[in-house]
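Structure, all two chains, one model.
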Amino acid sequence: MASVAIGEVYKSFGAVEILHGVSVNIEDGEFVTLVGPSGCGKSTLLRMIAGLEKISRGQIAIGERVVNNVAPKERDVAMVFQNYALYPHMTVAENMAFSLMLKGVSKPESDAGVRRAAEILGLVPLLARYPRQLSGGQRQRVAMGRAIVRDPAVFLFDEPLSNLDAKLRVQMRAEIKELHQRLKTTTVYVTHDQIEAMTMADKIVVMHDGIVEQIGPPLELYDRPNNLFVASFIGSPAMNLLRGEIATDGSPSFRGAGGISVPLASALSIPNGEPVVLGIRPEHLRLSDDQGIPVIVAVVEPTGSEVQLIGRTAGGEEIVANFRERHSFTPGETIRLTAEPSLIHLFHGETGQRFQTRTDR
Amino acid sequence: MAVPSTAIQPRPSMFSRLLSRWSESRNALGFGFMLPAAALLLVFLTYPLGLGVWLGFTDARIGRPGIFIGIENYEYLWSDAVFWLSVFNTLLYTISASILKFALGLWLALILNQNLPFKSFFRAIVLLPWVVPTVLSAIAFWWIYDSQFSILSWALMEMGLIDHRINFLGDPENARASVIAANVWRGIPFVAITLLAGLQTIPQSLYEAATLDGASRWQLFRYVTLPLLTPIIAITMTFSVLFTFTDFQLIYVLTRGGPVNATHLMATLSFQRGISGGQLGEGAAIAVAMIPFLLAAILFSYFGLQRRKWQQGGGD
């Protein structure tokens, strides 16, 4: 087991720079997810940790050792690939034993290692099969088995669940998390699915266009997103964002398009007239009789556990609200929505950076 | 009550009734669609093959149909030293040329599979020997091997490596090596390009996984490339062996089977006896004698190499 320290890492392919100075510290035994939209450089970063891509600038250390010039096989990392990368001409047992065989581990010892990993993952009845004879979920498990057998310092997962169907994905998600709790091996997990990141990680690294937008525990990212990108990326359905400005004449409030006015927490240090983006999570919106934002109901989606409402403000901006209560709405009607001032996020209108509010401190 | 519609329709002719029954029958229709292809195969493959086999059992000469003489031709060949020499030559030619083509072709494919500058240019160049008509390249080799003007002899003499010209095609051993070399040169592109296509079907992530598993370059080749390439190798080498075994043009242009039959292959001997010598029956018998060898090569490749358990999906 080991920590991983990524310091000011750059990566260029020819003239194109993919990563612009990324720094992440991963503690020993931590489960860290790298999350971001396609092309943000998260997979490249993972492959650089594995040694499959050269580091253009900066350094990566695994444990105490800087591994910039260490060959992949010397790094003591195991990787699970998106397409599993199982050797099609080897049985499940041979796939799992392959790295041990290359290491020159004796046959009985390697058999025992394979057996142990197979028991952890419930692969024992499949050991004699070929990858072609397995379902997607089983292949996924074999790929994990191959990683476990090696007992590496760091596990690397490259979007391991994206080829599975939705139900299996949820199941494997829990299995991987359980596996980590059991083995306590440092894990770096790449995904573009923020739900996966939220549910599994001890710490999330949100990446966007080759830079780190924010690092933190899942709930911190959810409750206090550093900027507009994180605010809109983390959470599903996404946070409602309304453009407008600050009004401090009288009690502080937000003034948006179409005459919207939202009261804000009183201790506000933002100057009058400052352009801002106001953010409210869909589940923080409440129905109100006479105050709040007037919203025209467009679509109502009852899911059983909650009712999701999509509507438009007078300024034409879309608003999504989730209610635990089974309200009934008619499309076209106008309702009013409010939110606790303490649950309201404010971002700078131009830079997109978060304004610190009282609850942040 | 409505009048049955058949009553007012004119009775359809026999032909059109048969046609409509045919067009509604799945089997008959399928059979009908296969007829043109079957006819082509019959006329251009089965008939010549059958005729060849039949001729082998007759004493036909050019201009004379010949009569059935049983296995007399084969009995004669059994005791014919030149025929057995040609069998030996063919096997030597096929086996050594195929091994060389495989080794060099695989090596070339591995090189071309890497990220080289001007990759597609080199791939096109490699195909050239295959694209050039055999007779043309054979004539070029004829010059290269010429006893007077050989550029090889000249170059080696200029470098001071030899002191007299090499008698490439006049000496039996040299002649065998020379025609094999020419055949290898001609056959490498086919092997290299097919194997290259096979190499490109191997996913990059397998190499990455194996690299992380700790495989060296040789182990990557031994445990990933080679096993995954085996099915393609089997098919490629089967074809290569068949082409080489039945080779005619190169030999015919370079040596015509000489010197003293040292490079006579079964194909060239069959032509010499059957067409040049006019003994159609005997020539046909030699050609037919090639069939067991070809079948053996195909069966070996099919059962020994092509069918791999891991390629078959599903089930237990």
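Chain A has a mean pLDDT of 89.
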